[in-house]
Specification:
Elements (H helix, E strand, L loop, with lengths): L1 E3 L8 H5 L3 E2 L2 E6 L6 E7 L5 E6 L13 E7 L2 E5 L6 E7 L5 E7 L6 E8 L2 E5 L6 E7 L5 E7 L2 E8 L2 E5 L6 E7 L5 E6 L5 E7 L2 E5 L8 E5 L5 E7 L2 E8 L2 E5 L6 E7 L5 E6 L17 E7 L21 E3 L3
Parallel strand pairs: 2-23
Antiparallel strand pairs: 1-27, 3-26, 4-5, 5-6, 6-7, 8-9, 9-10, 10-11, 12-13, 13-14, 14-15, 16-17, 17-18, 18-19, 20-21, 21-22, 22-23, 24-25, 25-26
Length: about 325
């Protein structure tokens, strides 16, 4: 099965400690009942969270086709999201209207071809970049614009889908580009790899690119952006993987207390952040992939902001570029 690669950002934690302050958040952690791993990704203004969960792993710990399903958390309940006849479904982005995007595998195609999807009130449609071998849909804004990535004979590229009209997103000079998130101003965030094999976050404002690098980090991954321009993502160092929020160039560290690894993937208009953490010695991948020890979801709420009263979550709980990696289906 062809999968967008996990983006493990390596950073110098000691250098970051002096330059990125820890932010004051309250954390609610959760996992889908009866599952081995939960990955919480997209978040909208109403506190709805989408992601996916795994019920089985192969050995080494690859996801098994058919064991991975998307989910929507809404008003205290989890519901599954499954593209009809797909062997694997992962929900990755949600807008304020409840439209959901993600990826699925087509078992009828040779090599389990990967497609993006749009779920509009339970009606599924494929999102496929023309002439691409694989398509990944990662984010959607309230206008219905979709961002993601695709693979062709020239490598991996980001894209913006505006009502079926596709624009390629390639950071100049990059060896590969992946787009993950979009806000209502049309700003796109993602990750690119440079010629020295380092990963950097970027924000694309209508074709004008700005680099996002956590100070002192070797690699930075940007995954989500809200309408105020706050950006979330992750970096990793000798002491594990950490998340960050970038507010106008001021970086703050976001960590689930006491956990080994944290990845922040979504941020809404209230500044709440969704993401995944790994307990014990586990590690985390990108929004499109678990690693060993799976993960559990979290919602981080800034101090002074009340969580939705319905948020009674169950407790406890790409570029490795090649840009894609092959996993057994």
């Amino acid at each position: 099965m062809l999968r967008i690669a996990g983006i493990t950002a390596l950073a110098a934690a000691a250098m970051l400690a002096a330059k990125a302050e820890a932010a004051d958040y309250s954390f609610t952690t959760f996992s889908v009942p009866g599952t081995l791993a939960t990955q919480a990704i997209g978040l909208n203004a109403g506190g709805q969270i989408v992601g996916y969960f795994a019920t089985a792993f192969a050995s080494p710990p690859f996801l098994i086709s058919g064991s991975t399903q998307g989910f929507l958390y809404n008003a205290g309940a989890f519901s599954a999201i499954n593209v009809p006849n797909a062997s694997l479904t992962e929900a990755l982005g949600i807008n304020d209207s409840g439209q959901i995007v993600g990826i699925y595998n087509d078992p009828s195609a040779l090599g389990f071809r990967q497609h993006g999807f749009l779920d509009n009130a339970g009606v599924f449609s494929a999102v496929d970049v023309p002439n691409a071998s694989q398509t990944f849909a990662g984010g959607i804004n309230d206008s219905g614009q979709i961002v993601g990535s695709y693979v062709d004979t020239n490598g991996a590229h980001g894209f913006l889908d505006n009502a079926g009209v596709f624009r390629t997103i390639d950071v100049p000079g990059a060896s590969g580009t992946i787009a993950f998130g979009i806000n209502n101003r049309g700003q796109v965030v993602g990750v690119y790899r440079d010629g020295s094999q380092h990963d950097h976050g970027f924000v694309d404002g209508n074709g004008v690119f700005n680099v996002i690098d956590v100070p002192g980090a070797d690699n930075t991954d940007a995954y989500g952006i809200n309408d105020a321009g706050q950006i979330v993502g992750s970096y990793a160092g000798a002491n594990g993987s950490h998340s960050f929020v970038d507010s106008a160039g001021i970086f703050s560290t976001i960590d689930v207390p006491g956990m080994n690894a944290t990845s922040a993937f979504g941020i809404n208009s209230a500044g709440q952040i969704s993401g995944t953490y790994a307990p014990g010695s586990g590690t985390l991948g990108s929004p499109a992939g678990f690693e060993a020890d799976g993960g559990r979801g979290f919602l981080a709420t800034p101090a002074g902001i009340l969580e939705p009263t319905s948020f009674a979550l169950i407790g406890s709980g790409l570029l490795g570029l090649g840009l894609v990696r092959f996993k057994r289906g």
